[in-house]
Amino acid sequence: MIKVVRGNPTPEELAAALAVVQARAAVGATAAQDAPARSEWSNPARLAAGRRVPHPGPLAWRTTYWPA
């Protein structure tokens, strides 16, 4: 839901603003679907100091052979 907080837009101005919001939402939705899955090897979080030792959990096998 969109709410006008200040001002008094004309119907044309409100329609233009809503068209821009709708177009941006549509582009964002298609970009999220088209984006390839990112490899865990390229994840910068794995280089953080706290992640040098594999932590137990369902995905621990992914970090088994990462360089220390």
Structure characterization notes:
With 68 residues, the protein is mostly helical. The model has no long low-confidence stretch (mean pLDDT 76). The relative contact order is 0.08. The protein starts with 10 loop residues before the first helix and ends in a 34-residue tail after the last helix. The chain is built from one helix and no strands. The chain has one helix at 11-34. The longest helix is centred in the N-terminal third of the chain and has 24 residues, at 11-34. This is Acyl-CoA carboxylase subunit epsilon. GO terms for molecular function: acetyl-CoA carboxylase activity; propionyl-CoA carboxylase activity.
Average pLDDT metric: 76
- Strand percentage lies at under 5%
Helix percent band: 25-40%
Helical segment count = 1
**Secondary-structure element string:** H
Radius of gyration: 22 Å
Task: For this entry, give a set of tags.
68 residues; mainly alpha; 0% strand; elongated
Q: Could you write a compact summary of the structure shown?
A:
This protein is mainly alpha-helical and 68 residues long.
Give a topology summary.
Layout: H1 11-34
